[in-house]
Each structure stands twice: as structure tokens, then as C-alpha cells.
Amino acid sequence: MIRTFLAAAFLAIALPAEAHDMASMTHGETAIAVSDVWANAAPGSNGAVYAMIMNGGAAADRLIAVKSDLAAAVELHAMSEEGGVMQMRKVDGVDVPAGGMVMLESGGTHIMLIGLKAPLREGTTGTLTFVFEHAGDVSAELTVRAGGSGGHDHH
Ligand SMILES: [Cu+2]
User: What is the domain-level CATH number for residue 47?
Assistant: First the structure.
């Protein structure tokens, strides 16, 4: 009698936990993760933002826009060197290959906050919403670091 009761009590506790693990393992459609979203502190009204995007899924995806309340507009920019001068241009998307990773980094493809409501200062926080063709909206928190050399002071 006692043994049966204990076994039943154990099962009642163990089963929901097992079911939960299985649910999280089979939940794989949205495989995009955005992390390390950061910017250098800068006094201007525009600021470059960098991030790491990982696609753990079996299908390619594409970052098509970024939204933020911190600025009037947000653009995706690519950098290229032309005649020894770094130029940048607006791009309409960034491909994220299946099982791959894309770094948005200084000197490369980056996010540009245009018309900042307040200059980016160390400790400034805010949410950026990354819009993917397939995964939809993925929100991530921005971290602003103390400004250093090698900044991105165009515009
Ligand atoms: Cu830029």
C-alpha cells in the first residue's frame, strides 16, 4: 500500500517535468537568436550598432529591418573600401545562412540609428527589434559601451 502510494506520488511529480523537456526539444521552428547588441557611446545624433545573429535552423533566413524607439529611423548599412576610402551604403537586407552566424561589426555590415532622440551614453539601454523574413520579430536589448577609438563617425 505505502509503496504504491509513493510510486504514484513520484510519477505525479516526474511526468510534467519530462513532458516539458520534450516540448522544448521539439520546439524548433524559430531558430534565430540575436545577442551581443552593442554600440559605442557617441555624442552625435547617429550611432552604429553591432550584433551577433545565429541561425540554428535548417532554413536560411534574412534580416530585413531593425526597429527601435531610440531613433527616428534605423537603417542597415554595409561598408566597402573604394579608392582607399571607406564608404557605406544602405542595404535592404542581410542573409543569415542555415546553421550559420552573421556578425554585424565595426568596419562591416552594421545597424545605423539615425536621428537619435538622445545621444548614446555608456549605460543607455533600449530595445531593438530585428525583423526577419521567416522568424519574424526578434527583440534584443542594446548595451552602450564607453566610447573608444575606431568609432564609426560618418554622416
Ligand atoms: Cu553606417
Answer: 2.60.40.1890
